[in-house]
């Protein structure tokens, strides 16, 4: 639930194209709309700070997903809240539902949470420990409230519900997605083909700008790195144990009140994935510095707290580091957005993200030691 941007303009009645009248009449005691401000942060979905005569709410316009899948996510957050996880379940309407479909679009209302986002630069080592422990709590609590999962080797773990019994059965209404082969590592041949395609698009923009020059440099650099390290590609079956994960754990999806986490938001990517890989991916977002280096002191505290909370061992974290490093080495999502989709919203992230891959490759053993040492 991102914070509102400083002094954005009010959306005067009829509040732009938002169907506020149709939405609010579905809920009791919502009052009349007074202001609706778009939120400035977030790449996916649309969020608004909605103020009515009866209170303030976060209004989320879901751009992806259908009513049933979004409602399932809402039920999960309700169960997690019962276990003490800091989440913000959706408000129920007069019929007991949490997703309003108006003109074919899905909306949900959540209580507004006053708080702020904190980047890794704003976290002390102690707060980094707290962050790792929090992610560990998320994973262990998801184990309790979701149905059991089985990894590709056939290993599974029995789960219990919040009250000591079996969790609510989701077999009929939640599809995990394919597991076998779903987490295979990128093939160098595919990476080389994508690099060639992106290079052609970059050079077509000549003379281009500073971003285009950096993109060309990084693409050529990355091709050389993939060629040099192709023999380090993780083999099939090297993925770490799978389980239910948040799927998008990063600073814009975590709100703090003071120094304490107040709410984990945006559960749209809740899924079954290798758990330790979420740990590594999140750290690569929280703790990356503008220069493209990771703050390994904070990473070490964060990873130790996660291992202590979940019981994950060093080997699991080391394997996750290797797989996510290879994933990053072969990933060009920001450039694909810019050059294939003409979407530049992620451009500001590119300098640090692209530099991180190079630094990580050079300091691989140190990074692995921070997560698994």
What can you tell me about this protein's structure?
The chain is of the alpha+beta class. Helix content is about 40%, strand content about 15%. The chain is built from 11 helices and 9 strands. It has helices at about 20-25, 65-80, 125-145, 190-205, 210-230, 275-285, 295-310, 315-330, 335-340, 350-360, 365-370; strands spanning about 35-40, 45-50, 55-60, 100, 105-110, 240-245, 255, 260-265, 270-275. The strands form 3 sheets. Strands 1-2-3-5-4 form a 5-stranded antiparallel sheet. Helix 5 (about 210-230) runs parallel beside helix 10 (about 350-360), helix 6 (about 275-285) packs across helix 8 (about 315-330) and helix 8 (about 315-330) runs antiparallel to helix 11. The longest helix has 21 residues, at about 125-145. The two termini are about 35 Å apart.
Topology:
Blueprint: H1 20-24, E1 33-38, E2 46-52, E3 55-62, H2 67-82, E4 100-102, E5 105-111, H3 125-145, H4 188-203, H5 210-229, E6 242-245, E7 254-257, E8 260-264, E9 271-274, H6 275-286, H7 296-310, H8 314-329, H9 333-340, H10 350-362, H11 364-372
Antiparallel strand pairs: 1-2, 2-3, 3-5, 4-5, 6-9, 7-8
User: How would you classify the helix and strand content by structural class?
Assistant: alpha+beta
Pick out the low-confidence regions. 1-14, 152-181
Q: What is the rounded Rg?
A: 22 Å
The number of distinct helices, counting runs of at least 4 residues, comes to 11
Overall strand count: 9
Query: Strand order within the widest sheet?
Result: 1-2-3-5-4
Which key phrases capture this entry?
single chain, 373 residues, alpha+beta, five-stranded antiparallel beta sheet, disordered N terminus
């Amino acid at each position: 639930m991102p914070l509102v941007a400083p002094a954005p303009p009010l959306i005067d009645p009829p509040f732009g194209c938002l169907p506020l009248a149709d939405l609010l009449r579905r809920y009791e005691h919502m009052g009349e709309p007074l202001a609706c401000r778009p939120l400035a942060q977030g790449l996916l979905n649309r969020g608004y700070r909605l103020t009515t005569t009866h209170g303030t709410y976060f209004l989320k316009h879901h751009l992806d997903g259908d009513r049933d899948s979004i409602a399932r996510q809402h039920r999960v957050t309700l169960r997690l809240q019962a276990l003490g996880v800091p989440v913000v379940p959706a408000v129920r309407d007069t019929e007991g539902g949490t997703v309003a479909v108006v003109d074919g679009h899905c909306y949900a209302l959540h209580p507004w949470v006053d708080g702020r986002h904190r980047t890794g630069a704003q976290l002390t080592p102690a707060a980094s420990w707290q962050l790792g422990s929090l992610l560990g709590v998320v994973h262990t609590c998801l184990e309790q409230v979701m149905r059991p999962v089985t990894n590709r080797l056939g290993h599974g773990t029995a789960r219990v519900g919040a009250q000591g019994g079996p969790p609510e059965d989701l077999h009929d209404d939640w599809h995990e997605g394919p597991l076998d082969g779903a987490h295979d590592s990128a093939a160098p041949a595919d990476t080389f083909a994508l690099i060639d395609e992106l290079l052609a698009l970059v050079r077509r923009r000549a003379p281009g700008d500073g971003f285009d020059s950096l993109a060309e440099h990084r693409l050529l650099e990355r091709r050389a790195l993939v060629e040099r390290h192709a023999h380090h590609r993780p083999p099939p079956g090297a993925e770490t144990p799978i389980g239910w994960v948040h799927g998008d754990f990063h600073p814009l999806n975590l709100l703090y009140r003071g120094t304490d986490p107040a709410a984990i938001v945006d559960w749209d990517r809740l899924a079954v994935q290798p758990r330790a890989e979420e740990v590594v991916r999140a750290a690569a977002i929280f703790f990356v510095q503008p220069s493209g280096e990771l703050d390994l002191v904070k990473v070490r505290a964060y990873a130790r707290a996660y291992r202590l909370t979940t019981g994950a061992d060093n080997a699991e974290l080391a394997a996750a580091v290797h797989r996510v490093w290879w994933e990053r080495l072969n990933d060009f999502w920001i450039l694909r957005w810019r050059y294939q989709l003409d979407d530049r919203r992620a451009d500001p992230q590119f300098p640090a993200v692209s530099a991180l891959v190079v630094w990580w490759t050079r300091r691989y053993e140190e990074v692995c030691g921070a997560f698994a040492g």
